[in-house]
Amino acid sequence: MHTLPAFGEPSYTLTRHITDRDFATVIADATAALATVGFGVLTTIDVQATLKKKLDEDLPGYTILGACSPKFAFHALSMEPGIGALLPCNVVVAQQPDGVTVAAIDPKAMFSVIDHSDVGAVADEVRALLQQALAAI
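Predicted structure:
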């Protein structure tokens, strides 16, 4: 089995490391925590299974949840239609040797490429909700 480098805490993510639950439980807990702050999971990408099937590569658990808050997505799209290229907010759940890391894209980093003053305020609100969801996992 190939191992990935340690996840760390990149500046473009909001990150939490969990050591008291298994990978599948953390995915379920992350999905539930996102729902409590108004995010649905639109897509679930099982990267581990996909890379096994397509490349015959064995990796530890790695799943990407495509999370979306319809309220904030609509608000952002109303200001800047092209922002859809940056949606949904991806949340990675990655098996690590000592636990499971959950990392959500930081909306401030993601939306920093958009030159629209009101988008920053939306990013702040979404960031706060994602931080709340991570804390609840």
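Summary: The first helix runs from residue 23 to 36.
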